[in-house]
Give the backbone structure.
Amino acid sequence: MIYFDNAATTRPYPEVLATYAEVASKMWGNPSSLHGLGSQANRVLQASRQQIADLLGVAPQEIFFTSGGTEGDNWVIKGVAFEKAPFGKHIIVSEMEHPAVKEAALWLATQGFEVDLAPVDQYGFVNVTKLAALLRPDTILVSVMAVNNEIGSIQPIQAISDLLKDRPTISFHVDGVQALAKIPTADYLTDRVDFATFSSHKFHGVRGVGFAYIKNGKKITSLLAGGGQEADKRSTTENVAGIAATAKALRMAMEQQEDFSRKTGQMKQALIQNLSTYKDVSIFSGTDHFAPHILTFGIKGVRGEVLLHAFEDYGIYVSTTSACSSKVGKPAGTLLSMGVQPQLATTAIRLSLDLENDRSQIEKFLTIFKKIYHKTCKVR
């Protein structure tokens, strides 16, 4: 099996699963309980929070645990909107946001808020000048992802931070799900970022766990009411085993970040060089200012899902668009935002690499691709 769908989810590290099992079986008390078992669980919870904060260079009281990226995005988009509604109801998100952000914002449009979509250029980068033109006195929130999940473009977070530097009334949210442990933290967690969201299973943690960064002093309406956990911002019993596993996964992933960037970048470059020799191949991902591990391309006249299943027949697993959208059967929304024609956008498949992949897998993939390509030539 060759697994090239790491942007959808990664395989948990064995050490992470061991941590999860140990905490779940030996430290299973409720961290809110006052007895010894509860105190033991709370110590693990707070130690995990501290470790994650240290790895990101933030304060532990700025880390809040969630069930993953979708919850975190919804919480920030809706929570900031409702908290700041008395001061304005205008929100800006980019055209190419993950559905967890974009659909949350569009839902707010049905609740009396105004939403503008900041355009992107033909290469998949937010146009900062056009975003600036959308700003209004009543703008309360700007949300732009750090790394696009469909083509891997690294968004100009620093430039947007500079734009918002003298606009303290506007909250700035960054979806960092595809960025964490993949590109340098400083590239997306700037001093101007007020909120950022992350998901454990994107960096070899377990599913169902994530966390949000909320800068000290920034207010947000609670998503869940109840027992007052997470400083009364997210009331529900914390998944201590999953959180401990997340801290372990993040430490391991960030220790390997430089190797990850170098090795996946080399594999991506080899793929691009080879695929570029086929006349009917369209490559949608670049290398400059792109994440090193994401490559999206297509064969003209061949739908992405057809290509996906053709590779699956050889034990190679890829994706069409984002995992959250692929079953809908729509073209990649990012590509449409870039001006790619819908018929061409439907051809896209995404390869997302990891340190667990190697050059021998790349070579096998390219050998299989050649077979599939020439087979499709007969039916195009």
Observations:
- The chain has a mean pLDDT of 95.
